[in-house]
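Hi D.,

Good news: the full-assembly prediction came through. Inputs first.
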Amino acid sequence: MRQGKYTILKNEALTAQVWRMELAGDTEGIRPGQFVDIRLPELFLRRPISVCNAEEGVLTIIYKVVGKGTDLMRTLTAGTELDLLTCLGNGYDLSQAGEKPLLLGGGVGVPPLYMLAKELCREGKRPVVVLGFNTAAEIFYAEELAALGCEVRVTTADGSAGQKGFVTDALPAEYTYFYACGPLPMLRAIERSCTSDGEMSYEERMGCGFGVCVGCTVKTIAGYKRVCKDGPVFKVKEVINE
Amino acid sequence: MADNRLEITLSGVRLDNPVIPASGTFGFGQEMAEAYDINCLGSLSFKGTTREARYGNPLPRIAECGSYGMINAVGLQNPGVEKVIEHELPELRRIFRKPIVANISGFSIEDYQYACALLDKEEQVEILEVNISCPNVHNGGMAFGTSPEAAAEVTRAVKAVTTKPVYMKLSPNVTDIVAIAKACEEAGADGLCLINTMLGMRIDIRRKKPIIANRYGGYSGPGIFPIALRMVNQVARATKLPIIGCGGVGTAEDVVEMMMAGATAVEVGAANLVNPTACKDIIDALPRVLDEIGVERLEDIIGVVNKD
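Then the structure:
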């Protein structure tokens, strides 16, 4: 955990509900799959948001406007200073990737895959990325991921773009390991469909974001674990669904 | 170096300063030690510990209350007293050399006695903080902390198994907290800690459902500070026991106010969850606040508003 002041460089809409914010500040030690916890004016709890990218003092986060906090974030302008906790959570285990890792993202679960894909490409791996959205208008970051050198497949539930269906309908024939982030039903479907070992990133309503309040504990095959501190990334079938 | 202007004494236990992270907002210190050297604290009240390991309540357990605070319904998740003694306390000892406040919860008189008797043997534990705002499954679902008789019964039972100072942590969700405080005093409590969280609720108006899976939860944060302060003051005026004031404290000024109301030490709770260095920031700011109000030693202001 690190704490610091970050200045908003850019805050712009990618789709009707999804926004991207770039912040200037300390990006030291931030790993793919980790999240940041943002203090916002007039709100008591920080807001945990996954890291889309962190490089040379520029932190990029992508968030969906779903409630009071994200609605407030949308209104923040360049130059605004924010208090962030960074380097939170375990992040993805890149050592497991193998030669041809599969990255699966659904909706606002797509952003953390960007930094992961970037690191994997840098290591010379050839990731296949399958993205799932409800409809064409909600698609974001397919081009950015392709620009990294990944093979990108897009699915939409209504068939308005890419392949009609869900990410599990567009899986490649072969892959060495998978990384997934998205809504719970998607993660469940992936657990049923994927043939390799893999890991998945969870989200949960959090109190602190760094492990002390145990507000986000889930049951796992290895006992109780905190999504914020022991996760948010867990091995496939590690979390017990009830 | 500790600034001796901030020194206080709780039932013979000398603390370098009155700031104690409240149970449940600081785990067993490990996570916070990533943010700063926690040896600046006066003491530390560890995560509420019960006889058996507990998972706690279903998720979501957390709801925000605007800028006023939050509701939690964690439900005393903890590894159980044996694991705490075997694993958590030795780990804590490696990073923390100050006196420890052991926070204990139970569901029966025997539970409390069992956990307290074990923690009594831990040298670094210098105060037992007995949480009596949990459901009393032993007694038809009523909380120990909501009846003077039950509060006194737990106090007596715990006192019988320990020689360490026993502080009863009181629930604010009662009609008359003074009656419960007095019952604890008469039953032999060495001190009191108040207040625990206030029972609260939030509703997700889009889903048309309570946000907290358990429906209700404990409301904490700056919104409860005036209520906590009032209750500390009422109890301070009605009993002779030292009080650890708790509830919505977030600044050095809040600490001073709590102590002026009658608290000897102060617990900081929800603030830790928002700002990991909250306790350190408060301790660092205390000498400046004392200078501003023309006070030399913090101990001199305890209960100052009760003196005329």
